């Protein structure tokens, strides 16, 4: 009888070993459970990643990607109202103002310290087919031949010979040896020379 029970116990232990059931335990470790736990962990990770992505997208507002269009020029929300030192982008009709100010406008997205450290410069560009208005009137309305210093904000003088000087010119010199008679404004302007009299947009077509 004892031999039969020993054989029975040996068979039971062999069966438990085959099924992966520990001796003395009424429950085995099913291979389905680790796979289920792995799936749940993967699902939680995916949901967490999606939530983080939505949160990051919510912080990245439309204003970060906004392009200032010509229609916004002259309306509220522009980074500057006028500019004495506007420069044009080489490939786009976009303008940046290099004027040094004590404080950037609240609408300026890219406010940086000036190279000389005497104020701030707004690095925003405005799209416009025409040059933005100046804050300080230049001594000339336009100029094709200009001489400027190489300073960050240059001093410029227009060398054009004109029929009459602009009303903003204080030193209008008559060129006696000119034929026909011409005038030349001898004022020096602190800032960029402004637009040319021959527009950069071709009108030949």
General description of the model:
The chain is α+β, with helices and mostly antiparallel strands and 205 residues long. Among the domains are: 63-135, Cysteine Protease (Bromelain) Inhibitor, subunit H (Ribbon), CATH 2.10.69.10; 136-205, Ribbon (Cysteine Protease (Bromelain) Inhibitor, subunit H). Helices cover 22% and strands 16% of the residues. It is built from two helices and ten strands, in the order ααββββββββββ. It has helices at residues 2-19, 32-59, and strands spanning 86-88, 94-97, 111-113, 120-122, 125-127, 146-148, 155-158, 172-175, 182-185, 189-190. The strands form four sheets. A three-stranded antiparallel sheet has the order 1-2-5, with no helix packed on it. Strands 6-7-10 form a three-stranded antiparallel sheet, with no helix packed on it. Strands 3-4 form a two-stranded antiparallel ribbon. A hairpin with a 6-residue loop joins strand 6 (146-148) and strand 7. The longest helix is centred in the N-terminal third of the chain and has 28 residues, at 32-59. The radius of gyration is 39 Å and the shape is rod-shaped. It starts with a helix and ends in a 15-residue tail after the last strand.
